[in-house]
Amino acid sequence: MNIEQLNNDYGIADQVKFIEGAGGFPFIKIDNAKAGAVISVYGGQVLSFQPANEPHNLMFLSESAYYQPGKSIKGGTPICWPWFGPDPEQLGRPSHGFVRTLFWNVAGTETTADGDSKVTLGLTDTAETRAIWPHGFSLSLAITVGDSLNLELITRNTTSQTFHITQALHTYFRVGHIDQVAISGLDGTEYIDKADNALLKLQTGTITIGTEVDRIYRDVDRELLIDDAMFGRRIRIKSTGSKTAVVWNPWAKISTGMGDLKDDDYERFVCVETANAGSDIVKVGPNAECRLGANYHIERTLPELSNDFPTAA
């Protein structure tokens, strides 16, 4: 992709700029009166989001992340599609689908009436994707950067045959320290504990993390809150088109074994994912569409103490 041409076609003066990012990937740098953000066109992935008056980035982005074709970027908002987790047909295809390792197309940029910046990215099926997943589709991701960060993933079936998908916005939230994190909104909710032989369990109270956590919460219909005590903030998550929430932290052993994480990175993030996963399978009929959305908003609980500016670019 030609950076100069992208700026000519889609740049917005003093607000939306295309730059060459890590690994030579095209990045979209947003800087408006409300917030700053960085989006990778590779993977269709928000790497950084920081409201103007917020001292810390919302997103965790690994300093050891890969910026290589065929590898996913560790951090931000990876898109899992058209399946979440292992290959559902056990054909040796990559976990979490294939769109997080493709270059997306830039479909449009705009400034909304209330001063937010909106970027729309898209993908359509190709011979390459059909060799992996034999269906025709049009995928659109609308990213709106303002006081909050809003994501909407729209799947369109462009064929005359029904297909089924699972999917997730696999968002990595940066936290001050995992020992001081509590997640609320899931009390009384059943979950599949993938870290304990996929046993079905019931959540009691808030979620705190002191070991590996890999859970699929079922029939979720409430807002979720991440209480990040060290950073003096709460992260409010509002989801649409989803009945599933996934909570994940790899803890020490898995983090140490990942080449794109530092050994102690598990202390600095938690994934709370808006998803259709497990038994929450979405049926998309011929020429029909489905929408999966998430809105992330930061609420401060302590005064600002320091500045922590995005480093993804």
From TrEMBL:
Pfam families: Aldose_epim. The keyword Isomerase applies. GO terms for cellular component: cytoplasm. GO terms for molecular function: carbohydrate binding; glucose-6-phosphate 1-epimerase activity. InterPro entries: Aldose_1/G6P_1-epimerase (IPR008183), G6P_1-epimerase (IPR025532), Gal_mutarotase_sf_dom (IPR011013), GH-type_carb-bd (IPR014718). The active site is at residues 170, 273. One of its GO terms (biological process) is carbohydrate metabolic process. It comes from the Bacteria. The keyword Isomerase applies. It catalyses: alpha-D-glucose 6-phosphate = beta-D-glucose 6-phosphate. Keywords: Isomerase. It is an enzyme of class 5 (isomerase). Its EC number is 5.1.3.15. Belongs to the glucose-6-phosphate 1-epimerase family. PANTHER family: APOSPORY-ASSOCIATED PROTEIN C-RELATED (PTHR11122), GLUCOSE-6-PHOSPHATE 1-EPIMERASE (PTHR11122:SF13). This is Putative glucose-6-phosphate 1-epimerase. It comes from Nitrosospira briensis. The lineage of its organism: Bacteria, Pseudomonadati, Pseudomonadota, Betaproteobacteria, Nitrosomonadales.
